[in-house]
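so my prof wants the structure for this chain in the tokens format not the other one, which i didnt know existed until like an hour ago. anyway here's the sequence
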Amino acid sequence: MEKEKFLAASYLVIIKEDKILLQRRQGTKLWNGFLALPAGHVDEGENAYDCLIREAKEELSIDVSLEDIIDTFVVNRRNKNLPEQYDLLPYFDVYFVLKTFKGEVKINEPKKCSELVWCDINSLPKDMIEYEVDAIKNWQQNIKFSTYD
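here's what i got, hopefully its the right format
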């Protein structure tokens, strides 16, 4: 039996008070126009932590360090039952929950992101990528959010 191959991605779950940072995707072939967490693929030879640090700088122009991480969780995203245009391999998605960082959040890749918005973490928008909503809700059910206040 052939071993299954997986891709990996790192997600930034940046929380300020009861708000979570989302970006509106644009110019992308997947989920164009949807709100999403800042994220990126783990490159060859890179680990999920290195990816987190690189993506924070590339997408948001901020610096994060391992000390800024207050929680981490992993989702094995199977990508089944997606529309044909989203035919993807399975992923290991690593979500890093952060409450601090250095710098000012800004759009650093305007061809890929049209806006940054702070949304109520307890009322995520309807136009957010569904599997990311599920990941956040599952995390919230397992961890008392007030623990980090």
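also thought this was worth mentioning. Residues 61 and 108 are 6 Å apart (CA to CA).
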